[in-house]
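Supplementary Note 3. Input sequence used for the single-chain structure prediction.
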Amino acid sequence: MSFPKTILAIDPGSRESAWVRLRVEGLVVEGKGISTNEKIREWLPRARSVAELLVLEFPKAYVLRAKSGSNFMPQQVVVTAFEIGRLAESWGARTSSSTAAR
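The predicted structure, written as discrete structure tokens, is reproduced below.
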């Protein structure tokens, strides 16, 4: 099994996302920051030249109960899930992936 040399990890949010680029050997942080999702989607296709693996955190789904007694999913969770898909698409992800909910 071959391991990637560099990983780009993103903790997505509905408007902004935190990111870190990690060199696996020596666990060296090569870059990090918080950027708008729009800006990340702009540079993400080019990031493949400096990172071999993209890791996107995916929030665990949950529902809340309204005062009326009905259940609903918070809008921010839905928007963040949508943004995760947009980020994966920008990276060029076209294959199946595994997920680990936080």
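The first strand starts at residue 6 and ends at 11. The chain has a mean pLDDT of 88.
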